[in-house]
Amino acid sequence: MFILIAIGTVIVVFVILIVIIQDRSLVKKRKKALSFLEEAVGKTDPHKPKPLEKHGIRFEYEYGDHEGRNKPSYFKVWLKRPGKGEFHITRENLFDQIFKKLSITKEIQTGDKAFDSAFYIATQTSRFTALVLSSSEKRNAIWELFSMGYNEVWYNGQTLEAKWSPFAPNAKLVPGFLDKTAENLAIIIKDLPEAGESPASTRKIDYTKRRIAIYLFTVILVFSGIFTYIGGITLGAPLDRFSVLLFSLIFSIPVFAIYMFGIVRLFRGSARTHREVKKVFLFTLASLVLIGWGLCMILNAKLDQSPVEPRKALVVKKHVGSVSHKDPFEEYYVLVESWREGRKTEKVVIRSSHYSRIQIGKTYLAIATKPGRFGFEWIVSYKI
Questions:
Q1: HSE-up of 244 (CA within 13 Å, CB side)?
Q2: Phi, psi at 207, each rounded to 5°
Q3: Claim to verify: residue 167 and residue 79 sit in the same structural domain
C-alpha cells in the first residue's frame, strides 16, 4: 500500500510540474510574440482596437491575449466594406481533403491548382466568391497574407479580416508588417463583384435554418442524455453501471451512426458540411451514449418481474462524493461487503439523512435486489 501511495504521489507531482513548465513556456512565448509585435507596430494594449489609415482606407488592428483562460492569443487586422457575399479561407488540411474525396463537401475551385490545393474556401455565396478569386492579384494577396503568418482570411459581407491565431511568431516580423497586411487586404476588397446572389441567398437562408435546427436539437439531446442518465441511476440503480454502459453501446452506437449519416446528408454539398459535422459530433455521441445508458438502466429495472432477493451486508466505508465542497449535488454512498462471488464490496447510494447514522464496521444494511431484465442486478431498496 505504501508503495502504491508513493507511486501515485510521484505521478501527481510529475503532472503538476509538467503543467507549471508548460504554463511558463506559454507565458514566455506570448511575451516574446508581443515584443515582436510592438517592435513592428508600436505599443499595443490587448483587446483595444487601434486605427490605421492606408491609401485613403481606414483599417483597424487588435492584439488579444486571453491570459489564464486557456484560449490562444491572436492578432487581427480588418476593414469595413459592405458587399453581396461572404467567404472564409483557411489552409486546407487532411480533414478537408478527406471529405472532399468522399464528395461530401463541395468547394469552389479557382482553376489555380496551387491555390486550390493550398487553401480551403468555405462560402455560401459561390458566385460572388468565385468572381473575387478569379483575380490572380487577389489570390496573390491572400498568398502573401498567409506567408506572413496569418492563418485565416474572412469576409462576412461587411468586414474583411486577416487573423493570426495563435499569435506566436518565431522570428521578428518583416519590416512594414502592418502596412503590407493593409495593402493586401485593400487588394482583396477592391472592386468587389456587384453580381446578385438571389438563388444562393435562398440556399444560404435554408442552410442557416437547418444549421440552427441541428444545433437546437443537439442541445435537446445533451439535456435529454443528462436527465435520462440521472433517471437511470435513481429509478434502477444497477450494481455494475459500467457493464450496463457496455451493453447499451450495442444500441446507442448504431443510432449515433444513423443520426450522423442523416446530418451529413442534410448538409451535403456545402463547403462547410464537415465542419458542421465536427461541431456536433462529440456532443451528439456523448448525449446518445448517456441516453442509451440511462434507458438500459431504467428498462432493466422496470421490466424486471423477478421476485425481490433480500441481502444483509456490513458497511465497511462511507463517503460523500462531490465536485467541490460547495457542490449542491452531493452523492452520499457506502461500501458494503459483497454477497456476489469474486467481489469484495458493493456501492450503495444512500440518503443524506442516513449518512450520520451509519457506523463503519458496525452498521448492517438490509438490501433488497432484483436480478434485472437484462441480467444486471439492481437495488430496489435498503434499510438500516
A1: 29
A2: -65, -45
A3: yes
E strand spans, the chain = 50-54, 57-64, 74-80, 87-91, 119-122, 152-155, 159-164, 309-321, 331-337, 345-349, 364-370, 378-383
Is the model more confident about 30 or about 161?
Answer: 161
| Statement to judge: residues 288 and 221 lie in one domain | yes
Task: List 58's β-bridge partners, or say none.
Answer: 53
Range of the domain at 352: 309-383
- The number of helices, as runs of H, and strands, as runs of E, in the chain is 10, 12
Dihedral (CA of 137, 139, 145, 149) sign: negative
User: Count of domains in the chain?
Assistant: 3
CA distance 172 to 251: 55
Contacts of 98 (CB under 8 A, 6+ apart): 274
Give the type of residue at 306: S
The pTM (predicted TM-score) of the whole model is 0.59
Q: Is a pLDDT exceeding 70 seen at residue 48?
A: yes
Is there a domain that residue 283 lies in? Answer: yes
Instruction: Note if the bond before 166 is cis, omega within 30 degrees.
Output: yes
